[in-house]
Design goal:
This is 5-hydroxytryptamine receptor 3A-like. The protein has 466 residues and is of the alpha+beta class. Helix content is 43%, strand content 23%. It has ten helices and twelve strands. It starts with a helix and ends with a helix.
């Protein structure tokens, strides 16, 4: 039996070659295969072009990413434009170039030939691009099919690090109906070559830039059927300069102005009104720039959290101003003594902590001058029952009613001025308490903003270097 098989094997090979030779014939005076021989192949376009149906048809796939048309974060959709290229082997389209006037390549209508039913599994919309009606056929039976593809695909978009985000979307190519026994797929070019070709066309392509194209082959199971697929991972990176200029820098300027507003005098109501105007302007800024921020149902970008925290910090600074204004302008607190625990905690401990310097109190000077005031008459210097009095030098002074009235008025004025000086002293103490608390809260506020800014910058730097 083995000897019989060795004898019949060359016969079968010659029979196969002769069958193929009969399929595409060439005649003298005619360039390329004859129309009749091609018509025989066209009539069999519904059948997979393989002599042995147990041998699968290998389809090689490559594409060039020509443009990124849009990224819809809310719908989780990526719209791209590809130049797709398919290669496969047609066993019935083989001819001898020497017998066909040196013709090695012809173009045929794609609708007249069998084509692999290669689709993209992430497709979510109809392809509205213009289809290419022809394919190139080589004399060895290898077919090249080029087509333009507007691909609207589903992609799991991660927007947490917006506008410094990097998206990784997959394009899965495979046969729609044929199993792994009929059609196999493989990449036509290396992934490095595909990346280089795509970057040449995407150099001036708006907001997005291509990082790399990766891929791998796998087997997809549908019940008992197995389909061969190839997955291309397209990694794209957003150019953040538009959002940095229009969102982050204006927001940073408003935050710097809010920090500098602490240098306004806290005893003036202008600071609170200024901060309220600043918060109103920041709110209007967020409403105007809301269209530039992406939105999804399953996440919020970090820049949105950044804006919310900035607005919260500006509101906290306004509340701090309200608290300090309450301490400095509350009428019932002006004439009360500063509690002892406030003096110990605020005017001693916190004041030393923030290096607060107290100005010299003029009350002690005024009390020292009171003893030597020549216009103040002491009660021991005159009595109501005497007509004359003796001063320290022994001279006599007349005691007239007008002088007694003047002396009484001076004593009342002195008492009133003493009360005013005491009130001023108490008011100055409360002012010092307010100033100390204002300096403390300002430094805490500045420390929080600095730490927050450093955390945001570090997180964005980490994502940019991924």
């Amino acid at each position: 039996m083995g000897h019989l098989w060795r004898f019949l094997l060359p016969f079968f090979i010659l029979l196969k070659v002769s069958c193929l030779a009969k399929m595409l014939r060439c005649e003298e005076g005619q360039s390329g295969p004859t129309y009749d021989s091609l018509q025989e192949v066209i009539d069999k376009k519904s059948f997979r072009p393989s002599v042995n149906l147990s041998v699968p048809t290998i389809t090689n796939i490559s594409f060039t990413l020509y443009a990124i048309l849009g990224v819809n974060e809310k719908a989780q959709i990526l719209t791209t434009f590809l130049w797709l290229r398919l290669y496969w082997f047609h066993e019935f389209l083989i001819w001898d170039p020497e017998a066909c006037d040196g013709i090695t390549k012809i173009s045929l209508p794609v609708n007249d030939l069998w084509t692999p039913d290669i689709i993209v599994y992430e497709f979510v919309d109809d392809d509205v691009s213009q289809a290419c009606p022809y394919v190139y056929v080589n004399h060895t039976g290898h077919i090249r099919y080029d087509r333009m593809l507007r691909l609207v695909s589903a992609c799991n978009l991660q927007i947490f690090s917006f506008p410094f985000d990097i998206q990784n979307c997959s394009f899965t190519f495979g046969s729609y109906m044929h199993t792994i026994k009929d059609v196999r797929v493989s990449p036509a070019l290396s992934f490095k070559e595909m990346t280089g070709n795509s970057k040449r066309y995407l150099q001036a392509s708006g907001e997005w830039e291509l990082v790399v194209i990766l891929g791998d082959t796998d087997i997809l199971k549908f019940g008992i059927d197995e389909c061969d697929i190839i997955t291309f991972w397209v990694v794209i990176k957003r150019r953040p300069i538009l959002y940095v200029v229009n969102l982050i820098i204006p927001s940073s300027f408003l935050m710097i102005i809010d920090i500098l507003s602490f240098y306004l005098p806290p005893h003036s109501v202008d600071r609170s009104s200024f901060k309220m105007t600043l918060i109103l302007g920041y709110t209007v800024f967020l409403l105007i720039m809301n269209d530039l921020l992406p939105s999804t149902a399953n996440g919020t970008p970090l820049i949105g959290i950044y804006f919310s925290v900035c607005l919260a910090l500006m509101t906290i600074s306004l509340l701090e101003t309200v608290l300090i204004t309450f301490v400095l302008h509350h009428n019932s607190m002006k004439y009360r003594e500063v509690p002892h625990w406030v003096q110990v905690l605020v005017m001693h401990f916190i004041a030393r902590l923030i290096c607060y310097s107290f100005p010299e109190d003029p009350l002690s000077k005024l009390e020292g001058k009171q003893e030597s005031d020549p216009w103040v008459v002491q009660p021991s210097q005159s009595t109501s029952g005497q007509q004359t009095s003796t001063n320290a030098s022994g001279s006599m002074t007349l005691d007239v009613p007008e002088l007694r009235q003047i002396s009484q008025d001076l004593r009342e004025m002195n008492t009133y001025l003493s009360i005013l000086r005491k009130e001023d002293h108490l008011q100055n103490q409360w002012c010092h308490v307010g100033y100390i608390l204002d300096f403390l809260l300002f430094r805490i506020y500045l420390l929080i903003i600095t730490g927050y800014a450093l955390v945001i910058i570090c997180m964005w730097c980490v994502w940019m270097n991924q």
